[in-house]
User: Fold these one by one.
Assistant:
Number 1:
Amino acid sequence: MNPRVAVVGGGIAGLATAYRLQRAGVEPVVLERASTCGGVIAPPVPVADLALEPGPDSLAARKPWGSALSRDLGLTLIPPGATGAFLWTESGLVPYLRGAPFGIPGDVGDVLRWPGVSSRGRVRALADLVKRARRHGAEETLGELLRRRLGDEVTERAIAPLLAGLHAGDVDRLSAPATFPELVAWEASQGSLIRGAQAAQRAATRADPGPVFLRPRSGMRELVDALAASVGERLRTGVEVTGVTDRTVDLAGGSSEDVDAVVLACGAPASASLLGPGAPAGLSTIGSVSTGVVFLMYQPGTAGALPDGTGFVVPRGAAPMTAATFVSRKWPDPRFGDRAVVRCYVGGAGDEDVLDAPDDDIVEACARHLSAALDLPPPAASHVHRWWASMPQYERGHRALVEEIREGLPPGIFVVGSAFDGVGVSDLARAAEETADQVLAHSGASRPGRRKEPA
Ligand SMILES: Cc1cc2nc3c(=O)[nH]c(=O)nc-3n(C[C@H](O)[C@H](O)[C@H](O)COP(=O)(O)OP(=O)(O)OC[C@H]3O[C@@H](n4cnc5c(N)ncnc54)[C@H](O)[C@@H]3O)c2cc1C
C-alpha cells in the first residue's frame, strides 16, 4: 500500500521533496499556509509597469542539483546577460577579481593587484602561502579562518562582502564548515587558501566551468509553477497546519489527518512549535535574520549608466545596501527598454534595524549612494519588499546541531529546508532528494528516481 505522506510547507524544499516522492510512486499531500506556494520564491511584485521577482533571482551553477531539477521538469535554463561583478570602495566601484573562486585569487600576481585592497593588505594576504596549516582544533567561524590565513583587511573589505553576504550573516559568527566547507578543505589539502583557489581554478578550466548563474527563462517562479503543476491538486494552499502529534497532522479549523510520515518543510521555529513538547531541543535555537530587497527603476535612457557586470557587493557599513544586482544587465528583458533597473539588498545580521525605516527613506538612501557611484538620476519608480526572518544563520556548531535535531525527531517525522540543508535553492533541491529517500526508507517504499511501474 502507498504510504500516506504529508509535507508541511510549499516552499522550494517542500515542493521538491513532494516531487521526488511522487517520482517514486508515492502521492504526498502538500499543505501550505499562504494563498500561493513558493515561500521565498514569491510571485513578482509591481514596479511601475514591470513585475519583478523579490526572492531568489538565480541558481548557483556550481551546485548542479537545482539545474538538474529544473531540467527534469522540462525547463530551459538561461545564463545571465553579463558576467563579472564589482566591489564598493570609498573611491567608487572596482572590478571584483574575475574567476577567483569564492573571491580568493589563485594567482600571486592577482593577489598583488587585488582591487580595493591596500598594498599592506595584499602583502599580508600572501602570508597565506607560508603560514602553517591548522589541521586540528575547534570549529572555526568563517571570519576566524579568513582572518588567520589572509588577514583582516582582505577578509573585511574583499571576501566577507561576498561570502557572508550570501548568508546575510556576520563573517565572525557564521560557521566555516557549515557555510563554505570548501575553504576548510582547501587549507587541509593544499595548506593554503590561495593554493586551494589555484587548484580549484585549474580544475574549473579543465572542466569548462560555464556560467556562474542560471535561471529558468522567465524567472525562478517558473520552477515553483512547474513543481506545483506536477504535484497538482494534492498541493493545498491556504491550509495552515497547527500541530503534529504521533503522525497526526492538525489543521486550522479543527480537522486532522492521519499519515505515515510527515515532512516539515516550514522552517525551524514553525517546526518546533508544531511538534510542541515532542520537538528536539535544538530546533528552536536556529536563528535567522531579516533582509529587504529594494527595486529601483530609472527613467528611459539610463540603461547605459550601469557598468557591464551583474552588480556589486559592499563591505560592512560602507553603504546602506549590502549588495546590488544590475537587473537590466544581468537578466536583460525587452520590457525594460533602455531603462536601468537595479535591485539593492538591505538588512541582514547587524543591520536589521534598517528595515524599520519607512520605504521612502530606504529608497532615498539606496538611490543617493547609487547616484554617488554611478551616473544615475533619482529613480522613476521603486518598491521595497521586506523578508522577515528569512535567512537562517549557520553559526558555530550548526552541522552538529542539525544532526542532533534529526536524531531527536520522533519516528516518521522529517525536517528539510533552508534552516538545515543550505540556503541556496540548489542545496534545497539536493536536500529534497535525500529527504524523499529517507521517507521512502522509513515507509518501506521504493527509492526516488525509480518510478513505480504499473503492475
Ligand atoms: C531576498 C532573498 C534572495 C535570495 N536569493 C537567492 C538566490 O538568488 N539563489 C538562491 O539559490 N537562493 C537565494 N535565496 C535563498 C532561497 O531563496 C531560500 O533559502 C529558499 O527559497 C527557502 O526555501 P524553503 O522551502 O526552505 O523555505 P520557504 O521558502 O520559507 O518555505 C516555507 C513555507 O512553509 C510555509 N509554512 C510555514 N508554516 C506553515 C504552517 N504552519 N502550515 C503550512 N505551511 C507553513 C510558509 O508559508 C512557506 O511557504 C534568497 C533568499 C532571500 C530571502
Number 2:
Amino acid sequence: MTDATTKTPAILCSGIAVHDIVMRVKSFPEPGTKVHASDFIVTGGGCAANAAVAVARLGGDTRFAGPLGGDDDAISNRIIADLLAEGIDCRGIERVDGGSASVSLILLDEQGEKTIATRRGGQLGDRLPADPQKLLAGVDAVLVDNRFPEFVSAVCRAARKRDIPVVIDLDQRTGLDDPLLALGTHVIASSEASRGSTGLNDLGAALLRLRKHLDCFLAVTDGPNGVYWLEGNEVRHMPAFKVDAIDSLAAGDVFHGAFTLTLAEGRKPVDAMRFGSAAAALKCTRFGGASGAPSRAEVEEFLRRQPPPHA
Ligand SMILES: Nc1ncnc2c1ncn2[C@@H]1O[C@H](COP(=O)(O)OP(=O)(O)O)[C@@H](O)[C@H]1O
Ligand SMILES: [Mg+2]
C-alpha cells in the first residue's frame, strides 16, 4: 500500500462545520400552529464538514480544518465528536476561546423543500490556521468552501505551493474579483451563488462571466437539473441521475467531496463529476443531510446499474 499509484488519497476539507437539527414534515406549519414530524435527526452540517463525511465514507484518508468555538462550546464539542466518529482527522481544527459554532433548525417537507433558521456562530471569522504547511503534509487535494475566506485562503495558498488540486465550493455569493476564487484549480459553484455573484440568471452565461476572471476548471451544480461546466468557452451539461429524492440537504457537499476524491485518484474532471453526481443522487434518497452520504461500494453499484454516459 505504499506504492504512490495505489495509495488512498489524502483529502483536506477546510471551511465551515455546523450543527443541524433536522425534521421531516408533510408540509410546513402555518405561523402559530404545530405539525407532526415523521423523521428527526441531530447531525453535523456545513459545506466542508459534510464533504469530509462524504470523502470518509467513500474511503478517502480524510482531514478537516476550520475554526470552531472553544472547549466550553458544547455545540463545537459535539461537531468534533461526530467528525471523529466518521474517522476524520480533526487536528486542523482551531478552537477559538469564547467563539461558538452555528446551529441550524431545518424543516424538510414532502417535496424536499427546506425551511431553515440559523443561529450563526460567533468570533470565528478572524482565526487563521496556525501552520498551513503542516496541515498540507501528505495531502493530495484540498476542498474548501467560502464561509471562512481568510482561513481557507491560507490553506489554498499552501496547497498551490505544493501544486495539488484546489477545489473551491463557491456556495455563498461573492465578488467576481474575490481573491479566494483565483486560488482554485477547480471552482464549482451552487446555482444560487453563481447567480448571486454574477447577477445572471442563465447558468451558462454565469459560467462565461466567471471565465472572464478565472482561468481554472469552472462548473455550477443545479440540483435535479444536474451540472453545467465549461470546456474552453463551450458550456456543457450533465443531467442528474433520476432518483426518488427525499432530502437534498448536503447534496452539493457530497458532490464536491466525491469529485475531489476521484480527481485526486487521477480521474478526469468529467468522470469525477459523474461519480460526484452518483454519490449526491444516492444521498438525496436518504433522510438526514450528510448522514445519508453513501459508501464507495454503494456508489459503484449504483453506477453499474446506470446506462453508460453519453449513450
Ligand atoms: N433531486 C435530485 N436528484 C438527483 N440528483 C440531485 C438532486 N439534487 C441534487 N442532486 C445532485 O447533487 C448535485 C448538487 O446539488 P445542488 O442542489 O446543486 O447543490 P447545493 O445544495 O450546493 O446547491 C447536483 O448537481 C446533482 O448532481
Ligand atoms: Mg452547496
Number 3:
Amino acid sequence: MPFDPANFRSRFPSLTLEVQGHHAAFFDGPGGSQVPLSVIDAQRDYYLSRNANTHGQFATSRAADETVDEARAASAAFLGAQGPETISFGQNMTTLNFALSRAVGRTLEPGDEVIVTDLEHDANVAPWLSLEERGVVVRSCPVRLEDCTLDMDAMRALIGPKTRHVAIGYASNAVGTVNDVHRVIGWAHAANATVSVDAVHFAPHALIDVTALSCDFLLCSAYKFFGPHVGLLYSRPGALDELPTDRVRPQDPSPPTRIETGTLNHAALAGVTAAIQTIANVGEGDSLRQRISTAFAEIYPYEHRLARRLWQGLADITDLTLYGPPVGDALRAPTIAFRIKDAAPEDVARRLGDEGLFVWDGDFYAVTLIEKLGLSDKGGVVRVGMAPYILMDEVDRLLAAIRKIAK
Ligand SMILES: Cc1ncc(COP(=O)(O)O)c(C=O)c1O
C-alpha cells in the first residue's frame, strides 16, 4: 500500500487548527512534531488506570512496570537495538547527553580528546565542552560551507591516538545534511574511541539501525517523532556497564537504569510507545521492527518528494539563498533552510505565520554552523521542516507565500 498522507493526517486532531481564517500548515516539525490522538489517549489512560510508582506489589504498580517495559521494547524495535535493556529514558536528549558526557568524562585523563563537529545542535557540543574543566581537549570537525556537509578528510585527520570519544550528529537540524556516521564510527573504533550519535533530527525521517551502525550510544527525542517530551538513550550492550554515572545509592546499577535518575515520566512513556506504533502502523509485517522499517520505506520518499518540490521552487526565486545539500538523490533530512535578501528571517517567519504557515527562524541552537555561515548577527535562516502529515498542497501554498515576500 503506498503511503496515504490523508489517512495519516486523520490521526492528528491538531491539524484542523485555523489561524485568522487560514488552515494551519505545520512546517515546524524540526522543533517538535504534532501528536496523534493515540498518544494523547495513551497518556490519559495511564493516569486513569495505571498510575503508580514502579516495583510495587499491587495492580497499578505492576501496570506502571509494564508501561516502562513496553516503552523500552518499542524503542528498541524503533532503533534496531539488541534488546530493551539497551534503552534508557530521560527528560530530553540534552539532559541525557549531559549525564552521558559527565560519566564518560570521569573515565578520561587531561589531554584526552573528544571530537565534535561544526554541524551540531549545541546539545551535542556543550556537554562535551564541559569536560574541558577536567583538561579534556575538544576538537571540532569543520563544515564545507558551500553545501553544509562535513569535511570528512578533516574528520579522518582529527581522529587519532588521543581520541577517546566522538560525538556526531546523524542529521543537521538546521540544514538537513545527513552525515556518514557509519564511516566515522569505523574510524573511531579503529582508534579505540567510543562514539555517540545525536539522532534527534534523523529519527523522525528515516530508519535507524544501531546494530548495523555499531555505535556505542545514540540519542533521540520522542517529541520530534509524534510523541511526548522524553529523551531516549541507546547504549550498546556493555557500553554502560562500567560507566561512572550519577545515581542515587539504592538505584539498580545495571543498564538501562544505570544512567536514569529518579522516577521516569511514566505517562509520557506510554505516549512514546503509542508514537512508535503510529509510525509502525504505516508499514506492514509480522514484527514491530518490520512494520517500522517498511513504514520508513514509505515515509522517507514521501517527505523527500515534498522537500524536492520546495527546494526546486525556492531555487527559482532570485534573491533567495538556499543552505545545505541540494535535495537530490543523496540521503538527506527533509529540512530546508533559506534566506531572502534584505528580509530578516524573523519577519519572513512572522509573515508566513500570519498566513497559517508555521516555520522557524533563527539558529535552532546549531550555533557554530550559523556563525560559520556568517549569519549569527543576521537572524540566522528560515527553516522549513517536512513531516508525513504535510500535504503537497501545503508546500505549494508555502511556495506561493514565499514568492510574494521575495518580490
Ligand atoms: C539535532 C538535535 N539535537 C539535539 C536536540 C535537543 O533535543 P532535546 O530538546 O530533546 O534536548 C535537538 C532539538 O531540537 C536537535 O534538533
Number 4:
Amino acid sequence: MKGRYDILLIGGGIIGSSIAMSLADKKGGKIAILDPDLSGIYSSSENNAGGVRATWWDEVNINLSLHSIKFFEKIAEDVGFRQDGYLWLHGSDTWRKAETMIAFQNRFGLNIEDLSPADITKRIPEIDNISDIAGATFSPMDGLINPNLLRNYYRKIAAERGVEFLDRMLVKRIILMDKRVIGVECARLAEPDENILEEILKSGRPYGHYTNEMYGCNILINTGGAWAPEIARMYGSDLPSHPLRRQVSVTHSPDVDLSGCGMIVDTSGLYFHPEAGNILAGYSIPNEPPGYNFKYDGYDFFLKEIWPRLYNRISRLERLRHIRGWAGLYEVSKDKSAIIGRVSGLDNVYEAHSFSGRGVMQSYAAGLALAELIIDGRYLTVDLTPLSGNRFKEGREMPEVLHI
Ligand SMILES: Cc1cc2nc3c(=O)[nH]c(=O)nc-3n(C[C@H](O)[C@H](O)[C@H](O)COP(=O)(O)OP(=O)(O)OC[C@H]3O[C@@H](n4cnc5c(N)ncnc54)[C@H](O)[C@@H]3O)c2cc1C
C-alpha cells in the first residue's frame, strides 16, 4: 500500500477541486485527489465556455447556481467573474413558457427582465434581425467566469489546507469489501505525451510506461466528470449518464465589438459571448453520438454551425473570421441535471458528476453541499436530496428544460 487517506477523490477537475476545498475547510482529515492529468487538457473544466447563470427552471438548479454566484461575487477579481448578464432570445415556440417562468425565477431574487423584441435592439443594437424573436429574458446577476482561475483558486485553498494532489494517477480498479470501498489500484503514468494521454482517456486503460500503486481510503468520491460512468462501473454501479462531445469556435469580426455584453443565447441554440476582442460561440449538434471524442471539426464546424447562425442574427458579422476552436465533453445525465450524493448500496462512496453542461457555474455550492453531507451528515446550505442518484430508480427524475 503506497498510502492511506481518510478521503480519496477520483478526478481533479473543477468539481473534485471544489469538494476537496470544502472538505478540508471542515477538517475532513487526510484527503487526496487522484487524476491522470491534473493540467486537464482533455477535461471538461479546461474546455468549456465559462458561462454562469442562475437562470434555470428547476429550483435545485437555481439554488446551486445562486449559492455559487454569491461566492463568485466575493472572489470576482481572483477568478475573472463579470456579471454582464445572460440575454436569452426566444422564438414563439418557447417564449410563452419562458415568460411565465420569470415570476417563479424572480422569487429567488434573480431580477430577470422581460424584454420585447424592440427592447433587445435597444440593449444590443448589433442584433438587427429580430423577425423570428417573440421575446427575451435578461438576467443581470449572470455572466462569465474564467474556469481555469476558478479551478486554480479551489486547488490553492485546498492545498493550503493540506489536500494532496496526486498527478499521473489513473484509477483502474476499486477494491470492495462487503458494502465498503477499502482502496483503489492506480496506474502511475510516466509523463505521457498528449497523444498517449488521449488514448488513455478514450479507453480508460493505461498505455506507455506505468507502475501500479495501491491507496487505501475510508471514503471514496467519484468526481470523474465525463468518466464518472467508467469509474462507477468499477464499484458495480451503472450510471444513467454519458459523455457527449461539444464544440466551441473562437471567431473575430473587424466590424462588431460585443465587449460589455455577457452571454447571448440565440433562438437557434447557438450561444456566444465576447472573449478578449473576439467572439466565442458554441453550438450543440443534435444527435451527437455519445463517446470520448475530442476531435474539433475545425473550419467545417464554424462554416456549417456557427457562422450562419451568427450572421442571421447580426448582419454585420458577414466578415467573420474563424480563428480556432476545440471540443470538450459534456457529462449528460438522463434528466439533464447533476447526480450528487451518497451512492446507494455502498456505505462509504459518494459522487458528484453529470452536471450536463453546468459544472463550472454550480461548482462551489455542489462542493460545499457534498462536504456537508459527508462531514456534518446532512445538507445545510442547499438541499441536494433531489439530485441523488436514486431518483432514476425511484421515478423522481427532474428534467431541466433550459439546458443548452
Ligand atoms: C464545450 C463546453 C462548454 C461548456 N460550457 C459551460 C459553461 O458555460 N458553464 C458551465 O458551468 N459549464 C460548462 N460546461 C460544463 C463544465 O465544463 C463541466 O460540467 C465541468 O467542467 C465538469 O467538471 P468535472 O470536474 O466534473 O469534470 P472534469 O473537469 O472533466 O474532471 C474530471 C477529471 O477526472 C479525471 N479522470 C478520468 N478518469 C479517471 C480515472 N480513471 N482515474 C482518475 N481520474 C480520472 C480526468 O482526467 C479529469 O481531470 C461546458 C462543457 C463543454 C465541453
